[in-house]
Amino acid sequence: MTYVVAVDGGGTSTRSVVADRSGRCLGFAKTGSGNPVSAGEAVAAAAFAASLDAALTQAGVAAADVDCLLFSMAGSFTGAASPALAERLRGLGFRVTPAIEGDLLGVFCSGAAELTGYTLEAGTGSGAVRVEDGRIARTADGLGWLLGDEGSGFWFGHAVVRAACADLDRRGPATALTSLVLAEAGVTLDWSRAGEGRPAALPALMGYVYDLRPVQLSRFARLAFEA
C-alpha cells in the first residue's frame, strides 16, 4: 500500500497528517511553529520533523513507504531550498521528493469545492490569493511580519504592545491595554521610577519582549479584544 503525507506549517503551529490513497486519515500530529521566515529554517525544520515522526508513528507507516509528501507552509519561498529540511527528511527515511506550496493555496484547497476562487487568511500572518484552476494567479500581502501581514495576529499584537509601552513611557495616552500586557508578560505594574527615569515596569517589559521571536508578539493580539 502507498501513502500520502501532508504538512501544514504556520507561524504558530505545524500539523501533519498521514492518509491512504482513499483519503482515510491514519495518523495526525501537531507541533510548534513551521514558518521558516518568522521562526528560522532550523526551528521550522525541527517542527516539521517532530510532527511527521509523530504522525507516522501513530499511523504505523514507514517514511520509505510514502510516495507523496506535500508541504503547505507560510514562507514557502525559503523552505523549498532549505538544507535543514532536506536533512531532516532524509533522517526520517523519506525517499520521495517533497512538493512545497504556499499556505494560502492549502487553505483554499481545504475548504473550496471548486478549483477557482479566493482565499483570505488572517492568522499569525495574513494574505489573500486568487486561485485559477488550482494554482495561485494573484497574491496580495503575505509578506511576513517585517514587511506586511496587515490585520494578522502579529499586526494586532505588535500594536497592542507598542500602545502599552507608549503609555508607560508617557509618549502616548493611558490605555487599558497596559495592565493586560504586563500581566501577560508576568511583569508587576510598577509606576515607581527605575533607571533612566522610567517606570520600573517598562524595562522589565522590554526585557520580556526582546527575548521573544518577533512573530511571538501575536500572543498579545487577543488583549485588544479583551480590552
How would the blueprint of this fold be written?
Blueprint: E1 3-9, E2 14-20, E3 25-31, H1 41-59, E4 66-73, H2 76-79, H3 83-92, E5 99-102, H4 103-111, E6 117-122, E7 126-132, E8 135-141, H5 153-168, H6 177-185, H7 201-210, H8 221-226
Parallel strand pairs: 1-4, 4-5
Antiparallel strand pairs: 1-2, 2-3, 6-7, 7-8
Helix pairs in contact: 1-3, 5-6
- Rg, please? 21 Å
Largest sheet, in brief, is: 5 strands, mixed
Estimated structural class: alpha/beta
| Average residue pLDDT | 89
Please work out how many helical segments DSSP would assign.
8
Low-pLDDT stretches: none
- What order do the strands of the largest sheet run in, or round the barrel if closed? 3-2-1-4-5
> How much β-strand is present in the residues?
15-25%
Tell me the number of strands: 8
The first-to-last residue Cα distance is 53 Å
Principal-axis shape equals elongated
Element string (H = helix, E = strand) = EEEHEHHEHEEEHHHH
Helix content: 25-40%
